[in-house]
Amino acid sequence: MVTTVHLLRHGEVFNPDKVLYGRLPGYRLSQSGQEMAVKAAAHLAGRDVVHVVSSPLQRAQETAGPMAAQFGLDVATDDRLIEAGNAFEGRRVTGEGGVLKKPSSWWLYRNPLRPSWGEPYEQVAKRMLAAALKARDVAEGHEAVCVSHQLPIVCLRRFVEGQHLWHDPRKRRCSLASITSLVFDGEDVVRVDYAEPAGHSENDISRQQAGS
């Protein structure tokens, strides 16, 4: 039985101070981000979506809204879809005053393979897989949408494709409001599709300092 789980990254966030917001509350979509959420929903119009579930963070919940409304569904919440934990929350990473320029922060970069500055990649991938499998079970034979964040989605994709989890953040294929789709045949992932209904932003990483 074929079931598709779409992993939708949230849209652009209103972040004038350009801090790494991570799991901090109160970060909402910008006007552009709201438009991205509508485009993502329109991209899946006519599909067999029967379940929409989101990270508990505001930006993800707001991105899930148009999707759920389009299919006449409520938005469920799964804490396992949340952004990865990060020691630099609330601070600038690059640019003036960025933590990369402060020797006191360099210790946190000692192990980029884990990574040492935040939640381990393996832990992120496994909780995301558990959330995706739950969504697959709920939508068995149909389609589900899980709204999450950049790093968790990338970790899950790399995990199911058998790639090593450490990677160059500048090369992540997960733009704002992009959709990474896991196609299951029974319990096995047989294909991974990718779409950018809101278009690709060249400034995706620099604007979204949270990498989320």
From TrEMBL:
Q: Which CDD domains match?
A: HP_PGM_like (cd07067)
SMART domains given for it?
PGAM
Query: InterPro entries in the record, alphabetically?
Result: His_Pase_superF_clade-1, His_PPase_superfam, PGM_Phosphatase
Q: Which Pfam family would be a valid example here?
A: His_Phos_1
Q: Can you name this protein?
A: Histidine phosphatase family protein
In which organism is this protein found?
A: Jatrophihabitans telluris
